[in-house]
């Protein structure tokens, strides 16, 4: 079991620190799942963080051609060939398109950030999306969702 990562940081810009705890809830070959919990230290209430897989599914449109998957995000299209990813046709692969085989959370500059991958099969990650969260009355909601530029190099 992996050790929890705990950080004190001002995630909601109120001048007071919250406790962010990142737990690895599952891992193995081709799989990593983390959960993040944020606690307001004054009230000891947990502050909701929107589910990263749902954020990705709800904001990324996916299109299919005979050998390509196209992700449409913020009016920009990103194409990925399936030819070298597996022996199946794109139509067969698309049935198995999943988000969240790898989910990693971290805090950077007092912002919660999450990376979520997109796969067509267990051996082949197409790309990774990065979510930056902001605080609202409902909890932490997505402020920005983008294709992870580090993965695109």
Shape: globular
Strand content: over 45%
Please work out how many helical segments DSSP would assign: 2
What's the SSE pattern? Answer: EEEEHEEEHEEEE
Summarize the main sheet. 8 strands, mixed
Output the structural class. Answer: mainly beta
What would you report as the Rg, rounded to the nearest angstrom? 17 Å
Which stretches are low in confidence, meaning pLDDT under 50 for 5 or more residues running? none
Distance between the termini: 32 Å
Say how many strands there are: 11
In round numbers, the mean pLDDT is 88
Give the helix proportion (percent range).
under 10%
Per-chain topology:
Blueprint: E1 5-9, E2 18-28, E3 31-40, E4 45-47, H1 52-59, E5 61-64, E6 68-73, E7 76-81, H2 90-94, E8 98-108, E9 111-121, E10 124-136, E11 139-147
Parallel strand pairs: 3-8
Antiparallel strand pairs: 1-2, 2-3, 3-4, 5-6, 6-7, 8-9, 9-10, 10-11
């Amino acid at each position: 079991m992996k050790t929890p990562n705990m950080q004190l940081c001002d995630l909601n810009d109120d001048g007071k620190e919250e406790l962010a705890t990142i737990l690895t809830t599952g891992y193995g070959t081709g799989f990593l799942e983390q959960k993040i919990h944020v606690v307001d230290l004054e009230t000891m209430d947990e502050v909701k963080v929107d589910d990263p897989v749902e954020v990705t599914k709800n904001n990324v449109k996916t299109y299919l051609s005979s050998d390509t998957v196209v992700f449409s995000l913020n009016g920009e299209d990103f194409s990925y060939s399936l030819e070298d990813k597996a022996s199946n046709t794109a139509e067969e692969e698309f049935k198995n398109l999943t988000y969240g085989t790898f989910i990693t959370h971290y805090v950077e500059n007092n912002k919660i950030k999450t990376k979520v991958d997109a796969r067509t099969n267990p051996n082949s990650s197409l790309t990774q999306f990065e979510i930056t969260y902001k605080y609202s009355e409902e909890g932490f909601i997505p402020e920005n969702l983008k294709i992870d530029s580090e993965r695109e190099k």
